[in-house]
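For homework, think about our next protein:
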Amino acid sequence: MTLTVFSINGYQGDMWSGPQADVARYLSNQGLNLAYWQPVGYNCTAFPLSVGVESGKTEFQRLRQQHPGPYLLSSWSEGSIISTEAVRAELAAGISDCKAAVAFGNPYRAAGHWNPSGTAPGAVGDPSGAGIGGPDNNWTASPDWWHNYAHGPNQPSYDGNPGVDIYTCCPTDQTGEAMRIVFDFVLTQWHGAIADLWTFGQALITNGTCEVLAVTNAIYMAIAFYGSNQQRPHQDYSPNPAMNYLAGVARGLAQPPKAPD
């Protein structure tokens, strides 16, 4: 059965470009010819973001039916939300077709889950923080074969690129907690108007949900991020370690099983 590598781009992304596409292309007949590359097209411009996430999950399941059997997965940003929710649901249902996955800038990355780590080639220390999705969404039980690549405050990063990607390395202090509440609003309710962010933030302060300084910092960081001034750490991920990792897995899957002794 043909091995498939699926790729899922981020918000307002192009399915043919970005780190997730670079990884998949490397494994395809445009590179090592180890797998069939199937990008997942979805409504990646939608607000609230949850509309795009549901669109992506539906399309991924449709494509899974077209390309059944073992697969690899490469995702970035909003695409990593889709891939996390999809694979987590498959594993809960006893489906183990996903053999390895890589995620760049994953908003649902749990604290302490990063790659390369341990004794892996190019291993770095914990980038710090956790996904902006928060405790209700971040995948604390992600398997060892699920690799998260992150740019965090603890440097050097795995690829040497500076900056903090707040999507996947959100602080764990009061500002971070406010940012996660704001992100949940962006994910489920926000339609793109900056004024609505301030209105939502004012409601958090009025209700006593968060401290004034934490909310103010969170809103400013959100505006800077969505205004593209601070998006570079979320965009300039090197695909190289992920390429090597998935290529190794693909080669292993291509080997015939050993005969019993």
